[in-house]
Design goal:
The structure is a single chain. The protein is mainly alpha-helical and about 375 residues long. The chain is about 65% helix and about 0% strand. It contains 15 helices and no strands. It has helices spanning about 1-30, 35-40, 85-95, 100-110, 125-160, 165-180, 185-195, 220-240, 240-255, 260-265, 270-290, 290-300, 300-310, 315-325, 330-355. The longest helix has about 35 residues, at about 125-160. It is globular, with a radius of gyration of 26 Å.
């Protein structure tokens, strides 16, 4: 087992390298980069994050603009009429004064030591920004994953055992309804119903804690946190439990029909012993296989719109905002962290297989 873990960890290195190479190529060469955004902001054509231009290269304000006597040929849109020296200063500030291969080599060297650089427009280290936003995403991701599996696994087992019954039929309607409607629509409905939209003002509309959170006693801090997290997590769970429920049901149905189950019943074992002593560990393997994707998705794609609806400043919103503003260090830093997290969770998922079913031997498996 230790040899398998070592091989998987070594294989993470070329995987991460490939992910970062493709990501670097995409975000570095798409049109409308940070230099163009800075130029547009300084000319008053953009009201976005460019107003916070700063970083390791020092700040460049509108007073640094110098107009030449005629149009200046430039590869940047909107740069006509600007001093070429000013454009070069912007390129140096954002690191675009070096060839792309050299920039990528520097990125790989820095990322190996978790030096993720500084945000172009926030003037903060990328790692600090990620640490600042991580608690929000962890709260949403962990609660959503835990509650989704806590609901879907027992429900899927019950549906498999009572396949075709009235319970199975009406719960299937609920599951299909949850699968068909996106989680952000549930979020909007919950806001309208319970956040003072048109009906009741029961839950807060924004944030994970109240303004006076630091002054509360620890029991009230727990209640305040749960009060704020209830609606976002409810929206995420309603939009995510359907797939794992159907997967659990179908997996258990396949196992229940196998010969070893009939043999166990013929030996006089109780239905509970057959179900949880024999069927469970075999049926749950395919369910666990989907755990890494659900877990990682909860941190980014699953929570992005939820963070928008409930004004939660997490990693999903940070990544989206940085991508729209061409804040490449933050975009690449988030991709790097998500990729690492995904690879680690996949490894943990494989190791969990052996805990559920000791017959699985990864030592004889080709990586």
């Amino acid at each position: 087992m230790l040899a398998y873990i070592a091989r998987r960890i070594l294989l993470m290195i070329p995987t991460i390298f490939g992910i970062m190479l493709v990501s670097f190529a995409i975000v570095q060469f798409v049109p409308g980069g940070p230099v163009e955004r800075a130029i547009a902001q300084l000319q008053g054509l953009d009201e976005g994050s460019g107003s916070r231009i700063g970083g390791g290269g020092g700040q460049i304000g509108a007073g640094a603009m110098a107009h030449s006597g005629g149009d200046v040929s430039s590869r940047y849109r909107g740069a006509q009429g600007l001093d070429p020296k000013f454009i070069k200063e912007l390129e140096k500030q954002y690191g675009f004064d070096k060839p792309a291969p050299e920039r990528f080599a520097i990125l790989v060297r820095d990322y190996a030591t978790f030096n993720l650089g500084r945000s172009y427009f926030r003037d903060e280290p990328v790692l600090s920004l990620i640490k600042e936003k991580l608690p929000v995403s962890i709260s949403l991701g962990l609660w959503m994953t835990f509650l989704s599996y806590a609901i879907s696994i027992p429900l899927g087992i019950r549906k498999a055992v009572s396949d075709g019954s009235r319970f199975d039929v009406w719960t299937s309607g609920v599951v299909i309804f949850g699968y068909a409607i996106p989680s952000f629509l549930f979020a909007i409905l919950l806001v309208v119903l319970f956040c003072g939209g048109s009906f009741w003002q029961i839950f807060p509309l924004r944030g994970l804690t109240s303004d006076n959170f630091a002054d509360l006693s620890w029991p009230r801090k727990v209640l305040d946190y749960l009060w704020h997290i209830t609606l976002p997590v409810t929206a995420l769970v309603l939009g995510s439990f359907a797939t794992s429920t159907l997967l659990t049901k179908n997996s258990f149905l396949d196992e229940i029909k196998k010969a070893y189950v009939q043999t166990a019943r013929m030996k006089g074992l109780s239905e509970r012993r057959v179900l949880y002593g024999h069927v469970f560990r075999n049926a749950m393997l395919i369910v666990i296989a989907g755990f890494p994707g659900a877990f990682i998705g909860a941190f980014f794609t699953g929570s992005l719109l939820i963070e928008q609806v409930f004004s939660l400043d997490g990693l999903g919103y940070l990544s989206f905002d940085s991508l729209m503003n061409r804040d490449y260090p933050v975009v690449l830093g988030n991709l790097y962290i998500f990729a690492l997290l995904g690879l680690v969770v996949n490894l943990i998922s494989d190791l969990t297989y052996t805990w559920i079913d000791p017959r699985i031997d990864f030592e004889t498996r080709e990586v």
